[in-house]
Amino acid sequence: MSADQTTSGGFHHAQDKLTFLLSLVPYLIQQTQVSVHDAARHFGVSEETIREAVLLIAVSGVPGSDSNYQHGDLFDIDWDAFDQNEIIITQLVAIDDSPRFSAREASALIAGLQYLQSLPENVDSAAYSSLAAKLARGASETPSQVIVSPAATNESFARVGDALSRGVQLEFDYRDSRGQSERRRVDPLRLDSDNDDWYLRAWCHSRRSVRTFRLDRIDALHVTDLAIDHRPSDVHLSDSLFDTSGEHTTVVLEFRPEALGLLGEFVPEGTRVTRSGDMSRASVRVAHFHGLTRLVAGLAGVARVVDPPEARQAARRWALDALASYPDATSSETTSSETTIANA
Question: Per the domain annotation, does 124 fall within a domain?
Answer without folding.
Answer: no
